Amino acid sequence: MVVKTDESITRELQAAEKCRIQVMYERGVAALPDYDKAVHFFGFAAEQGCAEAQTCLGVMYENGLGVKIDYVKAEAWYMKAAEQGLADAQLALGVLFATGHGVIRDHDKAVAWYMKAAEQGQVDAQFNLGVLLATGDGARRDYCQAVTWFRKAAAQGDAGAQYNLGVMLATGQGIVRDDDRAVTWLKRAAAQGHYDAQRVLSYWGMRGECRSGLPGI
Length: 217
Known about the structure:
Blueprint: H1 6-27, H2 35-47, H3 51-63, H4 71-83, H5 87-99, H6 107-118, H7 123-135, H8 143-155, H9 159-171, H10 179-191, H11 195-207
Helix pairs in contact: 2-3, 3-4, 4-5, 5-6, 6-7, 7-8, 8-9, 9-10, 10-11
């Protein structure tokens, strides 16, 4: 029988806890059965540097799950995880700075954190970044870059991005106008139940033509 060293056992226990945290993280904090226990569990793991636990703890402080709402602590935990490169934490920071929930609203920081997450393929960050770039809210308006990020999110199946990409193709914002491709993306969004996409397609169907001047982004 092989006798394991204390160090080896410790590593295995840490790996098991990390696996458990990963499962809980993937299921989502809202699905946890006992928030009070979760706060202690995530708190211990977060102090050990686990990015997933830090993010979950941030979610709990932001939403008052098992703790009082504390945006300062939420930002602090998100920041720790985001600095480790966790895309979901970077997205969460972007949302905080974009909305000004408990922090000073700072669109430049929102764009910066969205960008970090978007470059890792985080679909919600790609969509949010596209919106900021298309509206000029927090960044210089840049339709071309907005199209780039909407296209990436749309390719991952995000209905909102598919709709926005379709509208930009129909209006020629940031991209050469292409009615056929516009309809293709709008149909994909509509197939997922996107109301505005369904409404625009219905309007076009009744008029028998694709026209600009549609509801903007």
